[in-house]
Structures are given as C-alpha cells and as structure tokens.
Amino acid sequence: MDKSERIIPAKESVYLDGPKPRINELKFAWHIFRQFIYGFRNLHFIGPCITVFGSARFKEDHPYYQSAREFGKRIAELGFTTMTGGGPGIMEAANRGAFENGGQSVGCNIKLPFEQHPNPYMHKWITFDYFFIRKVLLVKYSYAFVIMPGGFGTMDEFFETLTLAQTKVIEDFPIVLFGRDYFNPLLKAIDEMAESGTISPEDKRFLFITDDVDEAMNYIKNYVRKNYKVKPRKRLWWLFEKR
173: closest CA among 61, 40, 49, 79? Predict the structure, then answer.
C-alpha cells in the first residue's frame, strides 16, 4: 500500500475560495438542522443509554472485542440501552452483547469512504453525514461512557466527553477507560498536563480506569443508582410518536 492509498479520500473536492454564497451557507445550515431533528425524533425514546466507544478495527477473536461484547451484555442486564457509533469492531461487539441478551441496541453511524457500515446487531440506527452531529447524539442520551482502545476517532470522542464534563456542560457521568496497558501512556500525558497547570489536578477525578468488566459496571451502577431515578418518557399522540 503506497502513501496515497493510506489517505482517506474526501467526500467531495473542496476549493479554498473563501466564504460560500449565502444561499449555500443557508442550505448547509438547513441540512444540519434536519439531521439533528431526525436524530432527536428517532432516538427520543431509546434511553437511558450507556455509550461504548472504541476502535472499528478489532476482529471477533480480539480480547477487546470479547470484553466489549461482555459490556453490552452487562449493560442489558442493568436495564440500559447500549449505544455505539454503529460500525464494526468494538462498536459491533458492544451492540452484539446487548442484542443477543435481550437488551436494546442502537447506533449512530457515520458516512465514510471505508470501514464504517452498520453492524447487524442493532434494533435502530441512524447514519449521519457529519461527525459533530453524531457526537452530540452519542452523548445526549447517555448516563455513562465506556472508552475502549481505539484510534483518532475514539480519542476525539473521549476528549469531547471529558471536556463536556469538565466544563459542566453535562453532568459528571462515569467515564470508564478500559485497558490499563493501552491507556497508561495517555494517563501519563494527562498527569503532565496537571503538572504543567493546563488542567486542574481534580479534573482527573472524572476518569475511572480498569481492566475488569465487573469493576467497571459496578462503578457505573453505583453512580447511577445513587444519583438518578430514571423514568420512561411518555409518547405524545399529537406529535405522531408511535409505540
């Protein structure tokens, strides 16, 4: 594989010609608005959720795939919906664990030139054009987050969620890092941030790292039961919300 084949091709050619005509910007804003509304209407009754993030590249025989599948199973046993990015790898495994054990399994998929196709273990999924819309939906309905080993996309989702908790845009829901060996270099970098003063030492309290699915789920379960009483949303017939 040469260098050109390793680069993800653009969805369409982009020319650096400055601001677009106002009508183009309006169309772009309308398209974003429509995707948000579509996502809100389709996912309004799926919660409460626990979102599992992780690489799309792990295969079925990988230990992290097997752990993610167990997470999906345990999330289902807890009575929560398992939410993922809807693709293969870790996402498929978590959806599969929930799907095969009687739990609700949903995904927020993304259009990509390769890799990303909806996995077959979801009861409902939505495909978005833009990562920023997808990330909003992956966070909006969840009371906890499991971050498993992954690449740039997983790190983007992890730090987005962490920043939202740090800045109190969302509650300080449990954020579990699963895989000590994988995440230890990252945790050292976070320690260096605290030592340099770019984050506060107490910001590290948002993170819980473990290699044990039982430990992770007990941490999430205790937090949710201590802080929340979850009630199902009522469907409104006059908004055409079907059962």
Answer: 49
